[in-house]
Specification:
Number of domains: 1
Bound molecules: zinc ion
Radius of gyration: 19 Å
Helix content: 25-40%
CATH topology: TIM Barrel
Largest sheet: 7 strands, parallel
Distance between the termini: 9 Å
Oligomer: single chain
Strand content: 5-15%
Structural class: alpha/beta
Length: 325
């Protein structure tokens, strides 16, 4: 079974330490997050994860995008929409995705080569790649203050405009070598999102992709599950470790060819689950969903954990998958 992560990894800024780095800082070319990205990639590869992320080390899922998108502003932990939302000239994440591919490939040759293997939703047995991660249009808009250009009642228009921005970003990540694209839409389980607009937005994001499209929605899904099942994506990624209701929702459900990203590690607690515990949950999932439809990953991003806990959780997760074969 394919293993992956949802995205973020615990990260810190690293001040320059060597003379070379200090000179780079003086010249304005020092990247204080490069080391965090390197640590995230190294640990995911060493833990045996098949499709890794760049660790999303440069900020929160909203901040990462809000800082760069024309029409948005980000200050003091808050994002605002202050003008017409327009596509970004340069990709936001492509450069970090390429860095992650290079680092992964230097540890385990084969990463770079097979990054584009998962084409047409046919998952090879041994796939090594980096996924391109995008914060969903609905989540971006609903977590930002509307100031100016769009009125409150124009939210749907803001979401559609945001989808066009993310469509370009998805293509840029595809061109950078992404194994597949994952769109994070945690707001879809909150009950405040308009699922019809969210689905239209997702269709726009995936319009011209040649690689599979996944959507991650964490939280309790009871009230939205059947609508979310219809979203135009190849993979639906949910949490099952920190949520006991979600698994029962999958019983006797026709997935219509979609795969399930099976979150089997609780990312809200530093307590590391035992391999037995994870293995048991995956087995339950296999009984309900079927092994061939599952991709194994943690419940959500691991940004809020400490590194030791994140690393051990990933190791136990891949070990539990090994027990199955
Ligand atoms: Zn999540």
């Amino acid at each position: 079974m394919l293993t992956t992560v949802v995205g973020s990894f615990p990260a810190n800024k690293h001040p320059p330490s060597s003379w070379g780095q200090k000179i780079s800082e003086f010249l304005g070319s020092y990247d204080p997050y490069y080391r965090a990205l390197e640590i995230a990639v190294q640990n995911q590869v060493k833990a045996g994860v098949n499709v890794i992320s760049d660790g999303q080390v440069r900020g929160s899922m909203v901040e990462l995008f809000a800082r760069s998108i024309p029409g948005m502003e980000y200050a003091d932990g808050t994002s605002s929409i202050t003008g017409k939302i327009l596509p970004v000239n340069n990709s936001i994440g492509a450069s970090d995705l390429k860095k992650a591919l290079n680092i992964a490939n230097s540890i385990e040759p084969g990463f770079k080569k097979s990054a584009n293997v998962i084409i047409g939703n046919e998952f090879a047995k041994e796939v090594y790649g980096v996924k391109g991660i995008i914060t969903g249009p609905t989540t971006m808009v609903l977590s930002s203050r509307m100031e100016g250009f769009y009125r409150q009642e124009d939210r749907s228009q803001a979401i559609i405009d945001m989808a066009r921005v993310m469509k370009k970003e998805a293509q840029d990540l595809q061109n950078a070598g992404a194994a597949y694209i994952q769109v994070d839409e945690p707001f879809l389980s909150t009950g405040i999102a308009d699922l019809k607009t969210a689905s239209q937005a997702m269709k726009i994001v995936g319009e011209e992709l040649r690689i599979p499209l996944a959507m991650h929605v964490c939280g309790e899904l009871s009230n939205v599950f059947f609508e979310i099942l219809k979203f135009p994506v190849d993979i639906l990624d949910f949490e099952f470790a920190g949520n006991h209701t979600n698994l029962s929702l999958l019983e006797n459900v026709d997935l219509g060819g979609k795969k399930i990203g099976f979150g089997c590690i609780d990312t809200k607690t530093v307590k590391v689950e035992s391999v037995e515990e994870i293995h048991k949950l995956i087995n339950k999932g296999m009984d309900i969903v079927g092994k061939e439809k599952m991709i194994i990953d943690p419940d959500c991003g691991m940004r809020m954990l400490n590194q030791e806990s994140a690393i051990q959780k990933l190791k136990n997760m891949t070990e539990a998958v090994k027990w199955l074969s």
